[in-house]
Structure formats: structure tokens, C-alpha cells
Structure to design on (140 residues):
């Protein structure tokens, strides 16, 4: 991060928050990742997540939810990015609170497909997420 830059604030509206909590709880109960779409708007200093939608459950393993469906399903104009959970099924019960290299690939493919900056989150509890804009820096 360059001097003078700061990360945007993320504000999640109550309806989206409820969907995200349900996504986490279903993922935790199944011990499998879940994927969803995020909708809202991005301003110069704030990301507003106004809506969220869980995608249908596919056959997935821990830390390997297929991101390809979210690229198409979470596109413009209703959505501006995607969210997924990080649930480990075997080696460690603690959730993963960061993006994996595979997640970065999905972010890049989403941006390539939709031709604009996207908002992406990984849930690691019912109320906690690590969220980023990708690409992180856009010249105005």
C-alpha cells in the first residue's frame, strides 16, 4: 500500500448480512465450502454490500469450491462480485481467513469476464469476513 492510500470501508446491509450468515452456517454444518453473489456499489472510499445470494450447492470438497459458476452467476448488472466460505473438512477445524491462490484466479477471471473491478469476500465465521476489491488499485 502506498503512503496516503487506505482500504475502503465495507458496509453490509442487514438483508445481505442475513444471507451471508446463513451461507456460513450451512457451510459449517456441511463442512463444505459454499459460494454466493454480492451486490451493491463501490465508491471511492466505501463498498456497500446491499444484497447477497447463495448459489446452489454443487459437489465440492473443503477449500475447493468451484469458482466458475460464480463468474457467470454473479455478473453484472445485479451483482458486483462473489463471496465464499473457507471450511476445512479434515486437517484443521479452524476456518481460513484469507484468499487462496485459487481464489485469486477466480477474481482475475471474474474481472476479465465482466470488464470491471469486483468485490470479493471470504467468510470465516457467521459475522467475520476478509473482503477486498480486485484489482486493488485503479487509477482514476
Amino acid at each position: 500500500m502506498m503512503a496516503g492510500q487506505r482500504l475502503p470501508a465495507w458496509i453490509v446491509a442487514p438483508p445481505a448480512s442475513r444471507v451471508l450468515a446463513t451461507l456460513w452456517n450451512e457451510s459449517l454444518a456441511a463442512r463444505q465450502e459454499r459460494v454466493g453473489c454480492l451486490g451493491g456499489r463501490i465508491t471511492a472510499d466505501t463498498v456497500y454490500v446491499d444484497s447477497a445470494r447463495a448459489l446452489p450447492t454443487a459437489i465440492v470438497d473443503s477449500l475447493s469450491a468451484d469458482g466458475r459458476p460464480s463468474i457467470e452467476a454473479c455478473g453484472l448488472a445485479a451483482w458486483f462480485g462473489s463471496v465464499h466460505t473457507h471450511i476445512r473438512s479434515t486437517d484443521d477445524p479452524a476456518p481460513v481467513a484469507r484468499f487462496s491462490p485459487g481464489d485469486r484466479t477466480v477474481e482475475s477471471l471474474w474481472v476479465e469476464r465482466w470488464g470491471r473491478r469486483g468485490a470479493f469476500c471470504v467468510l470465516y465465521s457467521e459475522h467475520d469476513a476478509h473482503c477486498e476489491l480486485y484489482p486493488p488499485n485503479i487509477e482514476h
The beta strands are 9-12, 35-42, 46-54, 81-85, 118-123, 129-134. The mean pLDDT is 84. The chain has one domain: 9-134. Helices lie at 14-30, 68-73, 101-114.
